[in-house]
Model the fold of this input.
Amino acid sequence: MAVRILRHLALVLVVAAPLGAQRLDWRTRAVFYADNTEFFTPYRVGETILGGQVSTWLADRTGPRTELRIGIFADRRWGSANFTDSLKPLLAFRFHTTHSLGVFGTLETVHRHGLLEPLMVTTRELTTPIEYGGQWIENRGAFHGETWINWQKLNLPDQREQFELGNVFRVSPVRWLDAGLQHLWYHRGGQLFNPTPVSNNHTEALGVTIHDSLGTLGRSYASAWELWSAGHIDPAYPPDRPGQGHGTYLRAGITPWNWAEIFVIHWIGKDYNGDDGDNNYNSTGSDPAFYQSHRVYTEIGMIRRTPIEGGATFDAEFRFHNIDNLKSIAFFNTRWEISYRLVVRAPLDILVRR
Done:
């Protein structure tokens, strides 16, 4: 059904294109992924995600600054009994200039909009790559800014409306220094049907990063961020727990001989809770009944990003996790958990009409 719809849309656009001398492209992005977390702690449980995704759309350049995208997204989990486990439309109107990009419809979600892990968990890149709403991205010299709203649920008799609103700003006053500000508002509300109270979770981050190329150590950096959280998306969250929290996020990395990034993350938190974030940073466990006010979390990992050919890329990540110094059965009964991720991304672009 979806392929037939896309074929009909292509036919309509091909016929209509000569009327406005518009360019028409057919673009496809395939992603093959394997993500495994061997976690045996109260915060995150072990999870294996294996599958493949395809996004295919027609891009009609309606003018020098505007583009219409129409297509479909499909996600297939290996081992599933379903032909596809997620099928969603791709529909966006995009306005772009040399410095700006405005999107209405299907959003750009590269690397979770640049959010830190305590604000948004990294598995969102695989489980929820499609978001809908509005977005504006601005790049002007030393300044980068992005603001967006991701509308997730309608307000219906049996559910509250739900959305995320995010802001990411970064300024580079000198070549080797970045200063950043991030904010994510996770909202559940609506007043038409459901008497359940409105609930909100706010997370903010303010930090600096110094970076440079250090000979054989390659691209190197060190970051320090302070984070704050307030509120909870769960309206039944226990009222006797703190409603606000904070934490310190430190990250440093080197890239020896520009081959692979080796990095360390260290986190110290108190009553911090980011409902969209990686639960390894939160005070609330995967079971809401578990709570640990003071948190200490350390992560050591390696990331290798490899261009293959024809625009295809291969990313490999391997990580060790120390979570509150708890002993685990994941890695030889030590105090370390392990996780890894393998991702292949392959593009296919066809010029339908110039």
In short: The radius of gyration is 22 Å. The CA atoms of residues 292 and 333 lie 22 Å apart. The chain has one domain: 2-76+87-353. The mean pLDDT is 92.
